Amino acid sequence: MGKHILVLDDDLFTRKLIGMMLERAGYRVSMAANAQEAMAVLRQTPPVDAITCDLMMPDVDGLHFIETLKQEAQFAHIPVVVITAAGLQGAIEKAQEAGVAAIIEKPFLDAPLREALEKALRS
Fold first, then answer.
1. What range does the domain containing 82 cover?
2. What pLDDT digit, counting tens, does each position of 87-96 carry?
3. Is the pTM above the cut of 0.85?
4. Which helix (H) or strand (E) holds 102?
5. Which of 25, 29, 56, 59 allows an S-S link to 19, with CB 3.0 to 4.6 Å?
6. Predicted local confidence at residue 86, as pLDDT
7. Share above pLDDT 70 across residues of the chain, in percent, rounded to a whole number
């Protein structure tokens, strides 16, 4: 079985699309619609090897989730690949400062996503 990836995105279509792309590439996938669900997955399932995360979500945005993740010792090492709408330069810069492994702007293709995850998993 491949590496375990957590897909965090509030949009059901996007979440399913990313999940399908990653499963086709041989990854095991868990999905979460919000930060609370994502933290539950992280605490209850076998170890997560990487996370894809949208920045713009209701309730807790992706940036706050990433900052919270990096403050928790058991999760701080997990690489995060941000997948977000183009044109959010300020949020993208803050995500880079928070230590994300890569940023992919929507719309995206599966090859750049796989490449970003593979690079993040190697580091």
1. 4-122
2. 667 777 888 8
3. yes
4. strand 102-106
5. 29
6. 66
7. 97
